[in-house]
Design a protein that fits this description.
Structural class of chain B: alpha/beta
Order of helices and strands of chain B: HHHEHEHEHEEEEEHEEEE
Helix content of chain B: 25-40%
Shape of chain A: elongated
Strand content of chain A: 5-15%
Oligomer: heterodimer
Strand content of chain B: 15-25%
Radius of gyration of chain B: 23 Å
């Protein structure tokens, strides 16, 4: 068993036993479910909208070269500097390079899972820069030196009491567990940061090829301030964020909000198409867009699983997943957790090290059903399992299947094997689930049905 | 000056993308049921021709917007209330003065920020306070100290209760987000039915020279990051008031 798999199992056992935490997650999931159902029912035809969204993203991903070129051409025409980063390390270097060049000291960031993916904060801090997360949830987990728990709700595992205690310890504020007071504290701290920051870093939800714009969806206004006040703006985005046309947003903005947070529309949906243009009073003097590959072209090359790149990172499959709800976000030890994380992480970080995530699923299909762009998530988990076994077969498992195939192809042997199994099964009970049991991994938590005392054939023969 | 990455990096990535796409992937399967024909569920097949969804088809899927002005107005009013924005349809131009004066008194405004426009100028006159204008370069610390930001907009969207602003129509990027109260002054004819209509308007009005900043604002700034409890006024405005003349 690989180290990540071992760690996953240990952590999962721990988390699944933490009932108060599971209770909190269930409550958050319950609230999301109600809000989403409410918002989705406002659509006249959600299935058709979902089909159109899937087709639009399919079109974008399957003509990615064309749309990327168009996107970049439009951006460059308006004075945006576009950078192409093949790996996370390259993206880090590009952004650290810009920060050095601009002699920046402080950077402010709005929420970006892509920056989590490349560990941007670590790289900037190593290079001597101060980085502050401005999204409230991200700010909270940054103070705790933790990665986000959920891609849309980074601090969903914490109570208001936890957060009040954290603020008191780290920011020296009076302990409180009133959400309004906690938000006020964060607002006050952050205002100073916006005004002092030399560079603002954002992610993006969509990249519009037709008009050369990025689109950012948020509720707090932190991304808007990050894109308005500092003199330099950097947006980091994966190449899969592309949408062909501006009007596609009329569909995607309400669908992202509905699936992601259960809102009909998020508070701010903002499109940025360049640095401050002539005749505009404010905005950054420089706008850099960093396009990130980091394994995405490898997933793209797998025609069978390519559609996983259609993901719009709404996080709905996480809420829907019974495994996520039991073991929580941190157990995955990946940037993207839940079903979509289990599907794409093996492509980005190595199949053998991360295939265990694809086994941590009941294959119930709730993820695929909830996905607004119709990614067939649970079947991709099966494909990962198949690819993992094909690439590096498990000798014991292979032996077991060969033996089974041998027996069921030979009626005489098969008849005898059942008689033997019937006689031997009680003896198996002695070692079942212990390290002496060759099938321990399976039998430790499961019951094997008893071999029937009489086979159908025996019964039939006697009946006649 | 940090230069954009050399041509090589760009070509390398595009080459990888093109190589990856050499094997075609099947398009998403279509089910008759999902095209509206009740009951049937036969897969139409991956080769069916796919057209970009236009405004008309989106209007059949998205939440209903209402056909007449009155219906849209009612919808906008309901949606604005749902998102905790204050919406008032004003009967006379004089009512703008009294509304603004009432807000000034209620919140004790000392200084406001705005941009030059027919509606905003009238509103600022009604406020009778010192005004920071953000039409040209301004001091962001001064804007931060203002009690309210008064802007015009490009459109109101009934379907979602949103205000559409751009860097050109609403005094730049910060005016509508930095002060604690954002007051929007709109005209009745700016009320649009839905999001597809809003994108049509943006195209007509600005293409190809779009403003560098375009935003759909739906209610005041909010968060649910603490136990999914709604709190207004995180980083942006705590209040959003929409006055329609």
């Amino acid at each position: 068993m690989t180290a990540p798999a071992r760690q996953f199992l240990d952590q999962a056992r721990l988390m699944a036993g933490d009932l108060p935490r599971r209770q909190r997650i269930q409550e958050a999931v319950g609230k999301h479910r109600t809000a989403r159902a409410n918002s989705q029912s406002g659509f006249q035809d959600w299935p058709a909208a979902r089909q159109a969204a899937a087709e639009t993203k399919w079109e974008a991903i399957n003509h990615l070269d064309r749309y990327l070129e168009e996107f970049v051409r439009r951006l460059e025409a308006r004075g945006v500097k576009v950078h192409w980063a093949g790996t996370g390390a390259q993206a880090q270097d590009i952004i650290v390079g810009i920060a050095r060049e601009k002699k920046a000291r402080r950077l402010i960031k709005s929420k970006s899972m892509t920056s989590e993916e490349i560990h941007l904060n670590d790289a900037l801090e190593r290079a001597g820069f101060e980085v502050v997360e401005s999204d409230l949830g991200e700010f909270i987990v940054q103070l705790r030196h933790e990665p986000p728990y959920h891609i849309v709700m980074p601090a969903m595992h914490l109570t208001r009491g936890d957060i009040g205690e954290l603020f008191a310890r780290k920011l020296g504020t009076r302990p409180t567990d009133v959400p309004e007071e906690l938000v006020k504290i964060a607002r006050r701290v952050m205002r100073g940061e916006y005004l002092a920051a030399d560079i603002g870093i954002t992610g993006a939800n969509f990249a519009i090829a037709e008009t050369g714009m990025i689109s950012i969806t948020e509720n707090e206004g932190n991304a808007r301030l990050t894109a308005a006040l500092p003199k330099v703006m950097i947006s980091l985005l994966g190449i899969e964020k592309i949408l062909p046309r501006l009007e596609d947003l009329a569909l995607f903005l309400p669908m992202l909000a509905t699936a992601g947070t259960g809102q009909p529309l998020s508070c701010y949906n903002t499109m940025y198409g360049g640095p401050r243009q002539p005749g505009e009073p404010d905005g950054p003097e420089e706008f850099h867009v960093v396009l990130l590959d980091n394994g995405r072209t490898e997933l793209l090359a797998d025609a069978e699983q390519r559609e996983a790149l259609q993901c719009i990172r709404c996080g709905a499959c996480l809420y829907a997943c019974p495994v996520f709800r039991s073991i929580g976000g941190h157990t995955y030890a990946t940037t993207y957790s839940g079903p979509i994380g289990s599907v794409i992480t093996p492509h980005m970080r190595g199949l053998q090290d991360w295939k265990h995530l694809s086994a941590a699923s009941s294959l119930c299909g709730a993820c695929a059903e909830t996905c607004p762009v119709k990614i067939d998530l649970h079947h991709h988990l099966l494909r990962n399992r198949r690819n993992g076994a094909k690439e590096k077969p498990d000798v014991l498992e292979q032996l077991a299947y060969r033996l089974f195939a041998f027996l069921v192809n030979r009626p005489g042997w098969y008849r005898w094997s059942k008689k033997i199994a019937r006689a031997v099964q009680p003896a198996h009970g002695v070692v079942k689930g212990t390290p002496l049991d060759p099938a321990q991994a399976w039998t430790r938590t499961r019951e094997l049905p008893p071999v029937a005392r009489q086979t159908f054939k025996e019964w039939w023969r006697r009946r006649r | 000056m940090v230069e954009a990455t050399p041509v090589n990096d760009r070509e390398n990535m595009l080459t990888r993308v093109r190589a990856a796409l050499r094997v075609p992937a099947p398009a998403p399967a279509r089910r008759n049921a999902e095209q509206g024909a009740a009951g049937a569920s036969a897969v139409v097949g991956p080769t069916a021709r796919r057209q970009a969804p236009g405004s008309e088809s989106m209007r059949r899927w998205l939440p209903k917007a209402g056909g007449t002005f009155e219906e849209r107005l009612d919808l906008f009013r309901a949606k604005a209330a749902q998102f905790k924005a204050d919406f008032h349809l004003l009967d006379t131009p004089a009512e703008l003065n009294s509304r603004i004066a009432a807000l000034r008194e209620a919140e004790g405004w000392k200084r406001i920020a705005s941009h030059r426009g027919e509606l905003t100028t009238a509103a600022c006159r009604a406020a009778g306070l010192p005004v920071l204008h953000t039409d040209s370069v301004y001091d962001v610390n001064e804007l931060e100290a203002c009690d309210a930001g008064i802007t015009e907009c490009d459109a109101l969207i009934a379907q979602t209760g949103s205000v559409l602003v751009t860097g050109r129509s609403a005094g730049g990027r910060a005016l509508s987000v930095l002060p604690p109260h954002h007051v929007v002054i709109a005209k009745r004819e700016q009320l649009l039915p839905d999001l597809p209509a809003a994108f049509e308007l943006l195209k007509q009005k600005y293409a190809p020279e779009y403003p560098s900043f375009i935003s759909f604002i739906t209610g005041p700034s909010r968060t649910g990051d603490i136990e999914r409890i709604l709190v207004l006024g995180v980083h942006g405005p705590k209040k959003l008031t929409i006055l329609c003349v």
